[in-house]
Amino acid sequence: MFKLNLKIALRNLWKNKTYTIINILGLSIGMACCILIFMFINYQMSYDKGYKNEDQIYRVVSTWNYADGNNFSSQGVPLPLAPALRNDFSAQLEKVSAIQQAFGIVKINDAKGNEKLKTQERTFYIEPEFFDIFDFKWLAGQADELKNPNTTILTKETATRFFGDWKNAVGKSFNYQNNENYKVIGVIDDLPKNSSFPIRIVLSYKNYKNKNMDRWGSCSSSSECYVLLKKGVDINSLSAPMAQFVNKYYTDKGPGKEGHHFQALSQIHYDPEYGNFAGNTMPMKEIYGLMVIGAFLMLTACINFINLATAQSISRSKEIGVRKVMGSMRKQLIVQFLTETFSLTLIALLFACVLTEAALPGMRNLFNIDMAFNIFQYPSIFLFMVALTVVVACLSGFYPALVMSGFSPALAIKNKVKANTGGLGLRKVLVVVQFALTVVLIIGTLFIINQMKYIRERPIGFNPSAIALVDIPNDSISRTRFDVLKSRIMQVPGVKNLTLCMSAPSSSNNNESNFSYNSSKDADFQVNTKVGDENYFKTFGLDFVAGRAFSKSDTIREYVVNETLLKRLNVPNPQEAVGKKLNISGRSGQIVGVVKDFNNNSLRDGISPIAISTYKKGYYTMAVKLDSKQIMQGMADIQKIWNNVFPEYVYSSSFMDDEINSYYESEKIMGTLFKVFAGVIIFISFIGLFGLISFVAAQRTKEVAIRRVLGASTFELVKMLNGSFLLMVFIANLVAWPLAYVFVSKWLNGFTYRINVSIWPFVIAMCISLIITLITVSMRSLRAAKANAIDALKYE
């Protein structure tokens, strides 16, 4: 029976080629998009999975809540927090480990003592307990020896790159930062890419030195702390002990409302508020957004199928009547029609697989992740495809099967089934729903494009154009060469200015510290500290509203602050602050200038209170302002001079514009996806519309012919056929506008600086949908209106 049903189904699909092609095209594109979206979401949801005790692993994060409503969050913790937790939470925490990110030069010599490798690497100072918390796969050695100074653990790939074969790496040594030699005591397997830990080189935490090792008032995002909960301990029960812990270690001199809480390992990848070392967070709202888009796409394709199937049911009424007269039960007819739907869906799935494979390289490039369309390697993809096929076939085919199997045999054989049989009202509702979804995506895309344009064009308080950020070493020997480096680079053609600093005005590297103003007690909020020399303001184009820049000196302690700091201190006149004392973490100095506010982070966040000072030991970056016409040659000359001044180090540089653009990577990705999927859903909607008007025109052939004979013009006939579709699309816009407004408003609320929700994107979306509808429907209705009336009437 199944074989017979399949043969009949394929025969009917072949007979109605236009219907089949339109449905296969719509379904295959929709299914391909859904498969790609599922693969991406499946990859994102697999982050930080597979650890033995993953449900008991937590990261400690920091928050500062201020009386004026300004809050600050950080993935980092003060350096003394880990040993204090180990002591105070011994009853609740099995293990506690600090981890500190750093960057440094790794040098490896051959057997003869000659240098064979010199490279700049990201490293992590880690305590041995970290490897009790995370059960990484060990290939050689063990973590216990990491408690000894000058020891290191490498991943398999890094050990192979350094020493040729990871199996021979244990016992070997390398030099770090031209200072200390580290002995390899273990090799672990490479961490997967879907991990929040970009660990390649682990250094003994015993070697980490920092002036803030005992200070609770300083916090850097480079310092994290992980804990392993004891079995049976409820994480919620630690809230009260943590509040007591904060009161114990944070004195009255602090901002007063510091806080820490435990963040589950499973949440780290999805929480952009805190971030992670890998810098690859994916907010859950964006994952949910992709799920909704996938549902929109598939629903649109299914609506096409339902509309076309119910419209086509009239032409198959005689076939249904004959089947019923010959004894077919309604259940048998439903099975027959569902077989057709499953056959068509399976064919569409095959085309969808081809489209998925073709689109995968672009998907990998867009998200910069390693995805493979391999059902054997990832069985979940196969299960999703099976589920998708069943859902699409049932959703698309069940209602048309019910409608067609319910025809009266007497009316069907006489070909008297009315044109509105099969749910003309439902078809109109489905068209409205389909175009409402389309309009929502169009409006969302327009707002995303406008917001990203606003971000690119909005002044951020300084000029980031044509500024190269060059890393510089900062040890006692290297600092003696800073003046030589500056004087030689200033002679390079195209170099306008340069400054030595810790980081650019806008940077992901932000440090917060306690401070006091004008010899009073510590303020009830923290200040964002930046370090730069006397050329910092001129190089970055920072404007002064009062006072001056630093004096040229390495010893005089002077501060330049921004307007926001004074506003938070209730100092109305910037000139009034000049000459006042500022004490930041024990470094006291005089305020000599006030600069206009500038964005120190992305436009999602507000401007922080900022204090800038000189501090030669804090210079890790050289910012060079270049003539935009001489960038390429200028950068080549700068690299040559840098290598000559610091031959024992590795040159590394980037551009300020690229750093700022990186803040909005997720928005750029979502913007691209919205544009692509909006285009796809528009295409699916309008091929369905073209198919539907084709059937409507065919059903009204006789009416069109009679009207033409009675004198109706081509324009009047096209207007008659177009009217109902344009009305449905207009209603779809009215339905879509409130939905789009809610979506757009919530998305824009994620930005401190954002565009206003104006009416124009809504109007443009309406115009786009109406114009494309008019063109699509007119193409087919014009053909019907121009058809020879005699051909339609001669059999009467």
Automatic annotation (TrEMBL):
InterPro entries: ABC3_permease_C, MacB_PCD, Macrolide_Exporter_MacB. Residues 291-408, 676-788 form the ABC3 transporter permease C-terminal domain. It is found in: Cell membrane. Residues 20-242, 437-630 form the MacB-like periplasmic core domain. Signal peptide: none annotated. Its main location: membrane. Keywords: Cell membrane, Membrane, Transmembrane, Transmembrane helix. It is a multi-pass membrane protein. The chain crosses the membrane at residues 21-43, 287-309, 333-360, 380-408, 429-449, 676-698, 725-744, 759-777. This is ABC transporter permease.
